[in-house]
């Protein structure tokens, strides 16, 4: 059966399932040929939404997704809100490839007051149910650390993770009450925790007033050093809480969202407003595949499921679609509000509307920057490829094939080839080679074998020939490649070598036989292109070598055990997953594989002895 016939059969099956879809809200799960879930979406009316993927025109990106769909499932819910929650949970569970928007694993820092006998402040990205007090999220680790640094100066809580035997420098600086040496009244801790909580909940103005009183009192008592310390603390608070781009008089913590779409991509911009002041922003860019606004709302639900410390308010742009009725808009707002248990606003005027416009504008600019950078890089790469041929004195170069060998003292020798077409990697055409005929660390011999195997196949299968072959190394590697190409195969392809410096970085380009150095300046785009190619083929070869070495080590450890052949070794690794798990198994765990108690004991003993010997 041809690929076209196979696809038509799949579409017939899908068409039949589409006719059975209900007119109800719910979630749909798109699957590929392996049964993997590749996309999860939600819909107010399942029948309309799922059908839309298989009818009408789509951009190239969505066409790619649809071409991979071979089946789908759906789950009916009683409301849009349930669909929203279910979609969020399904994406977290399955991590579908095309739900990129909801897989931003960025975690935000929080300031935590630990629930210890002697509490301390720390910055953390993980919220645990440990009775500690968490404040945040902060837009960056720097913002959280600066706030903690200020609080450390103001309140002398314990600083050390493990209480030492004697007082440290913090005690002498007046920044620790030294529970290591002195008994501290719990009331003193409670008062400090209360003050810190007040500060982090927006009471910094009141704390400034109290510090100002203490500064004046110290000055009146002629304690000028102490008065200076209070003055410095007040200045630190002012710097930290300095007014920024947006100021709202209500001092409410809120996150303001905006988004923009272009060329199948979405950018979501979040403005963090804390105590009424905009302190920072964060942008996420990703391809989207469904309805833009619904995918935007899905991003928000996923974002807050990963960052559970909510602000008092979130502000969103309205869905700008005149055909959509007000009731549906309110429905989206209410669903988010009731699930997140936070006030959700879609402002139509005023300062909050201006903040949303600012977020939208910033999202649009961030997307434009992304596309401009891509265009600029493409222009530079195209120019570099054109000029490379001029440097080498050849016709224009379109296809480059680069090779690199990898081994450790001759063990598990491998080679790898990468392909660049018009300056861009063609990863589907990368190839890996296990060296078969060469024993020991013979780099030139390995190069001859791989070049022979590659271009014998190119000739046999009538594959496209490269305009340039790049080898990792100098004269020896170039000569080895030319020997096979010209003398054995009759192929006259330019061959160049990339020589590295003592720091293992691309240093110079050599070409010809005998090889000559081509003096491409290091600040030229052509040099950067060669550098990228060399780094890519080295990365690919090293990765393959590590995999081969790892498999070889596993095989050798198991093969050395009497009674374990290749068949049993494969069954063991498939069943347990790793040597570590085999080592930790019990006698009973081997019985499903038909391995008796005696052999199971020998396996475990051999692996544990080998581990002890190598540790």
Automatic annotation (TrEMBL):
Keywords associated with the record: Cytoplasm, DNA damage, DNA excision, DNA repair, Excision nuclease, SOS response
Keyword Cytoplasm: yes
SMART domains per record: GIYc
Family under the similarity heading: Belongs to the UvrC family.
Function: The UvrABC repair system catalyzes the recognition and processing of DNA lesions. UvrC both incises the 5' and 3' sides of the lesion. The N-terminal half is responsible for the 3' incision and the C-terminal half is responsible for the 5' incision.
Designated gene of the protein: uvrC
Organism classification: Bacteria, Bacillati, Bacillota, Bacilli, Bacillales
Domain UvrC family homology region profile stretches: 256-485
UniProt organism field: Chengkuizengella axinellae
Annotated protein name in UniProt: UvrABC system protein C
């Amino acid at each position: 059966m041809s690929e076209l016939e196979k696809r038509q059969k799949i579409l017939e099956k899908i068409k039949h399932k589409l006719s059975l879809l209900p007119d109800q809200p719910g979630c749909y799960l798109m699957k590929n040929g392996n049964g993997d879930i590749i996309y999860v979406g939600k819909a107010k009316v399942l029948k309309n939404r799922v059908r839309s993927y298989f009818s009408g025109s789509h951009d190239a990106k969505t066409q790619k997704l649809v071409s991979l769909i071979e089946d789908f499932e759906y789950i009916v819910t009683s409301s849009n809100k349930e669909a929203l929650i279910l979609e969020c949970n399904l994406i977290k569970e399955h991590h579908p490839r095309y739900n990129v928007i909801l897989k931003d694993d960025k975690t935000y820092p929080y300031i935590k007051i630990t629930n210890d006998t002697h509490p301390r402040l720390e910055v953390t990205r993980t919220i645990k149910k440990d009775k500690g007090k968490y404040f945040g999220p902060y837009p960056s680790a720097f913002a959280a650390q600066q706030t903690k640094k200020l609080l450390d100066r103001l309140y002398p809580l314990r600083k050390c993770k493990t209480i030492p035997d004697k007082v440290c420098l913090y005690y002498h600086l007046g920044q620790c009450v030294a529970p290591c040496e002195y008994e501290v009244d719990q009331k003193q801790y409670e008062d400090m925790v209360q003050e810190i909580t007040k500060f982090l909940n927006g009471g910094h103005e009141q704390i400034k007033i109290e510090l100002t009183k203490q500064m004046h009192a110290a000055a009146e008592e002629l304690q000028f050093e102490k008065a200076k310390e209070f003055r410095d603390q007040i200045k630190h608070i002012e710097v930290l809480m300095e007014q920024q781009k947006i100021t709202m008089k209500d001092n409410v913590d809120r996150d303001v969202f905006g988004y923009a779409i272009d060329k199948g991509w979405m950018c979501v911009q979040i403005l963090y407003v804390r105590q009424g002041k905009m302190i920072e922003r964060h942008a996420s860019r990703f391809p989207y595949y469904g309805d833009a606004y619904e995918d935007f709302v899905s991003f928000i639900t996923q974002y807050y499921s990963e960052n559970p410390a909510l602000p008092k308010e979130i502000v969103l742009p309205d869905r700008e679609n005149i055909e959509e009725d007000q009731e549906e808009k309110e429905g989206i707002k209410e669903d988010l509000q009731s699930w997140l248990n936070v006030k959700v606003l879609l402002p139509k005027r005023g300062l909050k509307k201006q903040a949303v416009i600012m977020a939208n504008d910033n999202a649009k600019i961030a997307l434009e920057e992304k596309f401009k950078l891509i265009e600029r890089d493409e222009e530079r790469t195209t120019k570099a490829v054109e000029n490379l041929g001029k440097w080498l004195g050849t016709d224009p170069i379109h296809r480059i094939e680069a090779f690199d060998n990898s081994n450790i003292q001759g063990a598990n020798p491998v080679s790898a080839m990468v392909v660049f077409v018009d300056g861009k990697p063609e990863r589907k055409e990368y190839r890996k080679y296990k060296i078969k005929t060469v024993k020991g660390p013979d780099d030139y011999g390995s190069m001859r074998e791989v070049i022979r195997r590659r271009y014998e196949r190119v000739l046999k299968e009538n594959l496209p020939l490269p305009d340039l072959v790049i080898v990792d190394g100098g004269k020896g590697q170039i000569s080895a490649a030319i020997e096979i190409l010209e003398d054995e195969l009759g192929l006259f392809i330019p061959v160049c070598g990339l020589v590295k410096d003592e720091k293992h970085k691309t240093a110079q380009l050599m070409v010809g036989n005998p090889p000559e150095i081509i003096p491409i300046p290091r600040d030229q785009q052509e040099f950067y292109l060669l550098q990228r190619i060399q780094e890519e083929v080295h990365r690919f070869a090293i990765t393959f070598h590590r995999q081969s070495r790892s498999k070889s080590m596993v095989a050798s450890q198991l093969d050395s055990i009497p009674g374990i052949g290749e068949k049993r070794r494969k069954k063991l690794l498939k069943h347990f997953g790793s040597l570590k798990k085999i080592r930790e198994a019990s006698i009973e765990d081997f019985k499903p594989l038909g391995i008796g108690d005696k052999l199971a004991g020998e396996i475990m003993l051999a692996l544990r002895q080998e581990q002890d010997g190598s540790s």
